Amino acid sequence: MPDIISWFLRICHRAFLPALAVVTCFTGTGGCGKPTQVAGETAPTPSIPTALVVESQISGAILGKPLKSPSALATARSGALYLLDSGNKRVIWLDSRFTPIRDYRGQGGISGSFSEPKYLTVDNEQYVWISDAGHRKLVQCSDKLEYVGETDLGGVDAGQNFGHPAGIAVTGFGDIWVADSDNNRIAVFDAQGQIDFIVGDFGYPGGALRRPAKLVLDRHDRIIVCDTDNRRIVIYDDRGGLFSETEHSVFEEPVAAVLDSSDQLWVLDKSAGQIHCFDPNGRLLATLGPVVSGTDRPLARPSDIAFTLDGRMVVSDTGNDRVLVCRILTASE
After folding, report:
1. Residues 6+ apart with CB under 8 A from 119
2. What is the pLDDT of residues 67-83, one digit of tens each?
């Protein structure tokens, strides 16, 4: 019975939610098809970022191994931080004070360990999901990094073979969005692990994706996609409809994005080692980096960003084998 109820609610949500939204499109400087606003919402007044200041860093030996090429990041409602230590093929769980608790190096099918872990996400139930490109699978763990299960993507038939999984996002209704970087698209799986629909293929509204990387949810269950080789950010609604896109001349290799508590969009550019901040209307507010106050080395091939519960920014500085915890200074400070 709970499965039937869940299915009914999901259908109702998809059928009626679009009719409840009154949408206004913006065309601010530096982009097109800017984020829309739902009736009754008031966009917060943006604060202009002026600098990143490093408060602490995570580096060196962690749980018996030196941190090597840290990449993906995910934060949980508990304040926990999950860090993908790519060079050591493991996930590290740190508490809200960034104290390492335990690591996870893979379990389950195929070889039983990670081959090429790529991205992380934490769903609404606080489960941790990891994409393993080398084994073409998704691994699900508890919030304590205890193995729960996995999905083998190697045998998935979605009109053509599934490639190597990249970014992951899990909606509130249990749909799993997985970026297929080889085939330049996103496959959307239902809660039973079956492909529901494909997003971003040729002929799709908004144009075809090219090497989609990180996926992240906003607070309305819309999916933010780093469309890396198209040098843009695309946002889809939970049914795969094009919601908005942001293009700007500052983009070189946008690989990660995240929204802050004021709905400002932060985009990490790997090649430039820079972080760009856009207001909710798509206007570029600031570009920070690669030089960051409080450290003697500029960012080198950074690969992900995330926010802590208290608004600090965490940056995986991959080329320098470290993770930086930064405070954001604004024009009012």
Report:
1. 72, 84, 130, 131, 165, 166, 167, 168, 179, 213, 214, 215
2. 999 999 999 999 999 99
- Beta strands 232-236 and 49-59, pairing class: unpaired
pLDDT tens, residue by residue, 143-172:
999 999 998 887 655 445 788 999 999 999
Q: What separation, in Å, do the N-terminal and C-terminal C-alpha atoms of the chain show?
A: 55
Query: CA-CA distance, 34 to 43, in Å (whole number)?
Result: 13
| Three-state SS letters, 184-216 | CEEEEECCCCCEEEEECCCCCCCCCCCCEEEEE
Give 73: exposed, middle or buried? Use CB within 10 Å, 0-12, 13-18, 19+: buried
H/E element, 300: none
What are the residues facing 196 on neighbouring strands? Answer: none
299, 320 Cβ separation under 8 angstroms:
yes
- Are 219 and 238 within 8 A, CB to CB? no
| Number of residues assigned to the chain | 333
| DSSP alpha helix (H) spans, the chain | 2-20
- Domains, the chain, ordered by start: 2-330 (2.120.10.30)
Beta partners for residue 256, in sequence order: 268
Q: Considering the entire predicted model, what is its pTM?
A: 0.85
Q: Which residue has the higher pLDDT, 304 or 10?
A: 304
